[in-house]
Specification:
298 residues; alpha/beta; two-stranded parallel sheet; 10 helices; 6 strands; 66% helix; elongated
């Protein structure tokens, strides 16, 4: 059986490996484009724009997500049991009490958002409260608190910045390469530069997106392990994941922009896991997560 601590350490190491590779990839991409264009101006413009856009998202994304999910805030008197579960687990985790929101949907699901633990939010659906037993609900809440404690919102923002940099600089490079094609005397490489620009415009953003998705999947495994450590009962979260994944109700407020936030992919009828589907998925297969939880040794 796998040790909970070893699993968490393994996922942290893999996440930082992906991030390091991501940074090196961008450095190489920047060097290559700068060498081809013989100019650093385009790169600086792309990087600054990407960072500005990403930081705007970091400060305001929680409000946008809650608006898209049509979530409403509740107080302790509205649902004392849910409030006590969140409060007790927050104390155990050493985290500030997050704001609690309810989504009026039949599908059991939940997500956490917020730029840091002080401004964190946990949103759960009506279906989650109706269909899960208390130990299962505690498993889900512990998973979301793990996301908050692990600063996954911050990490996601960093990754968004990196992907944005890749997309912007390759797009600028692709456009400016056309302006330089008329000057065939410029190192005799106008057509070669255009071909390189086309290849980078297609494959660099794709590779950046795949790395972002890989990091997202590793953070889900880490949140499962951290949540299980918090409750000391991995079976509660495992049973919750089984119920959530098997529920046939659709989540009408879900969309591609926010689906990665939920504890389980909110789209139903799309769970067939071919190797290509897994590659482009924001979540690991639920079966793998349940198997990992039931193989933990606490």
């Amino acid at each position: 059986m796998a040790s909970l601590y070893n699993l968490a350490e393994s996922n942290i190491r893999k996440t930082w490996f992906y991030l390091t590779f991501f940074f090196l990839f961008i450095i190489f991409l920047g060097w290559l484009i700068s060498w081809l264009l013989e100019s650093w101006l385009i790169l600086w413009i792309a990087i600054i724009l990407s960072i500005l856009i990403s930081f705007f998202s970091y400060w305001h994304s929680d409000k946008i997500v809650l608006l898209l999910a049509r979530a409403r805030p509740i107080e302790k008197k509205d649902n004392p049991e849910l409030y006590r579960v969140v409060e007790n687990l927050s104390i155990t985790a050493g985290l500030p009490l997050p704001k609690i929101y309810i989504i009026n949907e039949a599908q059991p699901n939940a997500f956490a958002t917020g730029r840091n633990p002080k401004y964190s939010i946990i949103a759960v659906t009506r279906g989650l409260l109706e269909k899960l037993e208390r130990v299962e609900l505690e498993g889900v809440i512990s998973h979301e608190l793990a996301h908050i404690g692990n600063r996954d919102s911050l990490l996601a923002t960093i990754v968004v910045i990196l992907v944005g940099v890749v997309v912007l600089i390759t797009d600028f490079f692709y456009r400016i390469s056309f302006w330089q094609r008329g000057d065939s005397r410029r190192r005799g490489g106008g057509s070669i530069t255009g071909l390189i620009a086309l290849i980078l415009a297609i494959f660099a953003p794709l590779l950046a997106t795949l790395m972002r998705l890989a990091i997202s999947r590793k953070r889900e495994f880490l949140a499962d392990a951290s949540g299980a450590l918090l409750t000391r009962y991995p079976e509660g979260l495992a049973r919750a994941l089984e119920k959530i994944a098997s529920d046939s109700n659709s989540l009408r407020v879900a969309n591609n922009a926010t689906s990665h936030l939920y504890i389980v992919n909110p789209f139903r009828g799309k769970e067939v896991q071919s190797w290509l589907t897994k590659l482009f998925s924001t979540h690991p297969p639920v079966e793998e997560r349940i198997r990992a939880l039931r193989g933990l040794k606490i």
